[in-house]
Design a protein that fits this description.
- The radius of gyration is 18 Å and the shape is elongated.
- With 183 residues, the chain is an all-alpha fold.
- Helix 1 runs antiparallel to helix 2, helix 3 crosses helix 4 and helix 4 runs antiparallel to helix 5.
- It starts with 9 loop residues before the first helix and ends with a helix.
């Protein structure tokens, strides 16, 4: 087992925590959002979602800025190398092993990118719903609302992959969660 010495700076931990807290709580309060737009449940879901959108904007800005820990540059989820690593990782998991990669590579990198895309999608479509609320009968509003519901169905898949990987690493003696929450 290889334990990577990589740790995240405080700003990366705050961004991760913000996305996790606001993303999950917005997801969990989604059923409360039904109503006329003034109910407590609707307002709670709306403000949690807007907070997620703000954290996603920060995450994207940091990723594009060249931050060493969170940079998007040089790690494309669409590269052949990334998918080759991911296939190797899947084979390793199928043999009841755990992949040993640098952060953001292989299956871990694709999973993380999947999560960033979903939460960005939810932030954009949720904000669109708020901005188009006065046009609830329009086709555009209906499209954005359906797109938001599509994203909602993908969140549990992402959470199972991401949290499941963290749990498996922890059970195997490599508690990678500590890199995000401890020094």
């Amino acid at each position: 087992m290889v334990e990577h010495a990589h740790s995240y700076p405080t700003y990366a931990k705050v961004i991760h925590l913000g996305i996790a807290v606001f993303g999950i709580t917005a997801y969990l309060t989604g059923d409360w959002a039904d109503g006329d737009g003034t109910s407590l449940g609707y307002l709670m879901h709306t403000y949690l979602g807007l907070s997620l959108a703000a954290f996603m904007l920060v995450r994207i800005a940091v990723g594009l800025s060249g931050s060493q820990s969170l940079s998007f540059w040089g790690r494309s989820p669409f590269s052949r190398q990334q998918w080759r690593f991911a296939l190797e990782d899947i084979k390793t998991v199928a043999k009841l092993g755990l992949p040993e990669r640098d952060p953001h590579q292989g299956l871990a990198g694709i999973t993380q990118t999947f999560g960033l895309i979903i939460f960005t999608w939810m932030g954009i479509t949720g904000t669109g719903i708020i901005l188009l609320a006065s046009e609830e009968e329009s086709n555009v509003f209906e499209f954005v609302e359906e797109a938001h519901e599509l994203g909602e169905s993908l969140i549990p898949i992402y959470l199972v992959l991401h949290v499941g990987a963290v749990v498996l690493h922890t059970l195997s003696g490599n508690p990678i969660w500590k890199k995000m929450f401890m020094r």
